[in-house]
Amino acid sequence: MNNKVLHMVAYILLFVGGLNWGLVGLFNVDLVDLIFGGSSILAKLVYILVGASAVFLAVTHRSYCKYCGTK
Fold first, then answer.
1. CA distances (Å), origin 33, targets 36, 57, 64
2. Would the pTM of this model clear 0.70, i.e. be above it?
3. Is 29 helix (H, G, I), strand (E, B) or coil?
4. Listed residue (63, 40, 49) closest to 14, CA to CA
5. Averaged in consecutive runs of 10 residues, what is the pLDDT profile of the chain (71 residues)?
């Protein structure tokens, strides 16, 4: 998979994860649980992919960020 595509997918998943945690914190509503069901394999896969995206973006952040990247 192209690095740019992988970066965009990871960014979208991280955005979904952040939105989900915001909803949990503010309203005690788990969006992933509502869509896929809390104990379903799909929900667990979403959680795993969001976590993997966070790790990927943390490791590769410097090379993609216009503020942190080397000039």
1. 5, 24, 31
2. yes
3. coil
4. 49
5. 84 92 94 86 92 91 74 53
Residue extents of the structural domains in the chain? 3-64
Which has the closest alpha carbon to 53: 1, 6, 5?
6
Q: What's the rounded Cα separation, in Å, for the pair 19 and 32?
A: 10
User: Closest Cα partner for 9 from 69, 41, 50?
Assistant: 50
pLDDT of residue 70: 61
CA-angle at 21, arms to 15 and 22, nearest 5°: 85
